[in-house]
Request: fold
Amino acid sequence: MDGAQVIPRHQTAITRPHLSKPVSLALADGILRPELTLFDYGCGRGGDITLLQEMGFTAHGWDPGYSPHAQQHAADVVNLGYVINVIEDPAERAETLASAWALATRVLIVAARPDWEARTVSGHRHGDGVITKRGTFQKFYTQEELRTWINKELRYNSVAAAPGIFYIFRRTADAETFLASRTRHRAVSTRQPRIRQALYDAHREDLNALASFIANRGRLPEPEEMPEPSDRLLRGFRSLNQAAATLRTIIGSEDWDRDLEQARHRTEQDLLVYLALAAFRGRPRAYELPRDMLLDIRGIFGSYREACSRADQLLHAIADQRALNNACIRSQIGKLVADALYIHAAAIQSLDPLLRIYEGCARALTGTVTESTIIKLSRTAAKVSYLSYPNFDKSPHPTLSRSLRVDLRKLDVKFTDFRESTNPPLLHRKETFVALDYPGREKFARLTKQEERAGLLLETTTIGTLSGWEQRLKDRGYRLAGHRLVRIADRD
Ligand SMILES: C[S@@+](CC[C@H](N)C(=O)[O-])C[C@H]1O[C@@H](n2cnc3c(N)ncnc32)[C@H](O)[C@@H]1O
Reply:
């Protein structure tokens, strides 16, 4: 058989959805870094080049079958990946190796198929290899054979990178640096993080988009939920799952797992509240739900039916004032007093789902009360009040302007206007109503400490309204300068 004319060598090139083994190994080993250029000699369909370019690398290549007119040029790293094994003529094989080496200013990567793969390929012998059923040629190398051949042809000592893969460094110092790094770390344990770091650097923006999706929803997206980033990520990683695993390595598994768990918990609670409240207007059927919500439900509860049954359990508890009272007592957030739990409207989402549903039932009657600052959840009767304190942020002790009380048993809504009142109720200890991250919370807490030290918050019966509080300040010789307590005699 007359080699090149007859044997369709180019047919050995496969479409690569992922980086080839020698290229991904070079990334993992730090041989190929973003600041270095790569030339892929015998690049086939150019899969490695495209993927590397997408990762931000400067990568080009040439192939006699696919890109014969591409320019051959020197590069820091040259890859000769699974080329020599498809050339049936030993002399041309050696020439090809020499040509690739001539372009490599720092390192040449040579990959060839190892001998144990011969078993998986049937065909008939041809020269020192076989002609496969598809009519292509394959030469399988033992590790030693490949090493000796490279060293003899190039007169350089190659370094085995993996079975069937060798690095040939132009400078001895580079070879030694690589070998030293390999003895310092165990190869297996360093490869993954390194390649992950390289992949992370290359896909930073898309990985960040993936991370924020996961942090919001507590689950992986379906590719169609973030089509463009997914598309790009799926070229660098085998799956979004693997991309997420890379994020976990980079971010640290403990932080990642904790954030994920919190996100799942939040999504779970949001869905339970939504599904419980949806029961009042007639729950949609599964196919009527938005697709992303259905995916959340399946990801977290397993099925829509299971999610609805969990939401129903909460709905039953709503009718039980004792269960509501217990939830108020257990609440980590809000100000608990004898007959109610008070909470800032911005923190309502952080409440236990049962209390959110309690409040949601009231909102179903009133609609959103936009000007409400504080929400009062009664512990003793099924009543929710929306209280408006327009000066909540600015005033150290804001006064009540309006209230809307919803009686869930009587389905009755009562409005009270305090704007003309000369002695409206007012708030103390503002930090107790808000979430930990509420702006100004520390300032509120500092004032409370000052007021406690000054004994102003004892005997609370009279200080709950404006005139009682002003009298208390006066009696004890204090006044307020913003959120600061000052002695009347003191100068500011
Ligand atoms: C198995 S493919 C490998 C392609 C690519 N490096 C990869 O790993 O996906 C072998 C390639 O070697 C190319 N090839 C054949 N003879 C060559 C030669 N003398 N010099 C360079 N490339 C050659 C073929 O056209 C084919 O695309």
